[in-house]
Design goal:
Blueprint lengths: L2 H6 L2 H36 L4 H32 L1
Helix pairs in contact: 2-3
């Protein structure tokens, strides 16, 4: 989100947006762990890599990576306003 749009939001809206982004990131974590677990387990049992599943795991890692910068901007805006 652009900086000027963040300044237009109220502090309550910023807290709500921060909470939603944190929730989305924490939803990704068990999904990533589960996918990695099954990928590693299948590799150790079959000695073969499932490339489709590995691609899904890599794409799932992109979720938190793309959400974190926006979360950081929102946290910075909240701290700037609380000073």
């Amino acid at each position: 989100m652009e900086e000027n749009k963040l300044t237009d939001l109220s502090i309550e809206e910023l807290h709500k947006k921060r909470k939603n982004l944190q929730g989305a990131i924490f939803v990704f974590i068990p999904i990533i762990i589960g996918l990695l677990y099954f990928q590693i387990r299948n590799y150790l049992n079959d000695n073969e890599i499932d490339w489709a599943m590995l691609t899904i795991v890599i794409c799932t890692l992109g979720g938190p990576v793309t959400l974190y910068p926006e979360l950081k901007k929102i946290k910075d805006e909240i701290t700037n306003r609380s000073k």
